[in-house]
Amino acid sequence: MSLLLTVLAFATIPASLPSVLDMGIPCPSTSARGISMGESGFVELTPTGALRNPALSGLLGPGLLVEVSGGTRLTMEKRLRKVYDEFGSSIGESEEAFNRHISTFPGGVSATGSGAVGIPNNVSITAGLYRPYSFCYDYDRMVMDESYVETARERLEVSGRASELALAACFAPSERLLVGLGAGYLFGNRTSRWVVSYVDPTADDVLQVTDTDVSGASARASALYRAGRVAISAGMDYSLSYELTGDEQASVSLPPVFHAGAVYEPGNALRTVFTGECYYSARSDAEREGADMYDRDAWGMSAGVENDLPGGPVGRFGFSYRSSPISRALDRMAFTLGLGFRLGDYSLDVGGSFSPGRWRQVEVPDMVSFDPGDSLVVEESSTTVLLSIGRRFEL
C-alpha cells in the first residue's frame, strides 16, 4: 500500500505537466509566418493573426485571403536524480528517464475578406478555426527502489487540444486608424491515461483514465494606428467563461490579457519588416471555483525580422520570452526562423521554433514529491515546425 501511495504521489510531477494539466500549453502563433517571427500572435500579418487582433485585418489588403496551416512538434525530456553512496555522499547524477514524443496537429484555417459587394471598402471581416492550447504529453519511466532495483514501469499519456471558432471585424474610420472587435467560442478535450505495471506479480497494476472537456467564450477589441511606415496596435482579450466538465468539473475565472505591438517597414530595397509585441495578464487574480490559482502574473515579449533573400524567398527569424504564472523556473525563451515563397496568388511558408528549459522539482510550488528536498532535475526542449499555404482571391 505504501508503494502505491508513493507512485501515486510521484505521478503528479511529470515535466511539462505543470502546464499540460493546468490550462494547457499555449500556442501563441498558428501560422508559419507568425511562429518564425518570434512566435508573434498579436502582430501576425495573417488571417489567423487577425482573429487574435481584429484591427490587423485592415493591413492584409483587398480581396479574399485564405490560409491553412498544420505542423509537428518534437518534445524531449531527460530526468536526473542525485546518486548517493553508502555514506550519504553524492557521487553524481543518475538518468531516471529519457522521453521523446512526436505529435502532428492542425494549426488552423482562416480567411479575411474586404472589398466585397455590399460591404463598405473600409470594412474587413475575418473568420476561422485555430488552436490556442495543446495538451499533448507522453512520459515513460522505470520505478526503482533505494537500491536502484526496478520495481515497476510507469507510463503517462496526455492528449487533446483546445480549438477556437472565431469571428472578427475591422472598421477604418480614417486612413490612419483601424478599430476591430472579435469573439470566439472555445472547445476541446483533454484525456490522460496513467499505467503502472509492477515487477512483483502479487501486486495489483494501476490503470487510471481521466477525460475532461473544455469550453468557453471570449471577446476581443483592438485598435491600430498607422504613422508613415510604422503601425502601432493595442488591444485586450477577455475570457467570458472557461468551464471544465466530465471527470473533472470546475469553473475558471481568468483576468483579461492586454497586448501591444508594432510593425515597421523601413522601405529599403530588401523590403524588410520588423515586428515586436508584448502582453501582460494579472494571472494572480485567476480563480478556480473561487480559489486562487497562481501567485504570479504572466507577461511576455517577442520580436521578429522578415527580409527578402537573393533568389526570391523571404527569410525570417526572431525570439520570444514568456513567463509562467506557475513558477519562475518554468519561464521559457524560444528561438525561431523560417522561409516564405510566393507563387502568383499562392503563398507557401515554413517556420519553426526551438525552446529549451531546465528546472528542479523543488522550484515548482504545490508539486507532490517523495520528500521536500527531492533532487529531481528536469531538462526538456520543444521543437515545432509549421507549414502554411495561402491564396488570395479577387472579390
Structure description:
The structure is a single chain. With 395 residues, this protein is mainly beta. It has one domain. Helices cover 6% and strands 61% of the residues. The relative contact order is 0.19.
Provide the helix percentage: under 10%
- The topology string of helices and strands comes to HHEHHEEEEEEEEEEEEEEEEEE
Relative strand content: over 45%
**Number of H- or I-type helical stretches:** 4
According to DSSP, the number of beta strands is 19
Q: What is the terminal-to-terminal distance?
A: 69 Å
* Main sheet specs: 14 strands, antiparallel, barrel
The backbone outline, from C-alpha atoms, is: globular
Low-confidence stretches: 1-15
Alpha carbon gyration radius? 23 Å
Mean pLDDT: 84
